[in-house]
Predict the 3D structure of the following.
Amino acid sequence: MVDVYFNTKRDLLVVKKGFPMPPIGEQGKWRKSKRVIKVSDEIRSALHRQCYYVRKLRDLHSNRD
């Protein structure tokens, strides 16, 4: 299972359950989401490689072009 966090800029952080939060710099306070049903294959493969996944909201908007 995973723990999902959002910060004040609406960035996404997914961490394997039981692992500490990675040192990802000053990006505001992270709040834990209460419920997770599914994660995508992209997130699942990143968790397998490095035990966490981070996505910034602005990265999501730049991919729409």
Remarks:
- The chain has a mean pLDDT of 83.
- The chain is about 25% helix and 30% strand.
- The radius of gyration is 12 Å.
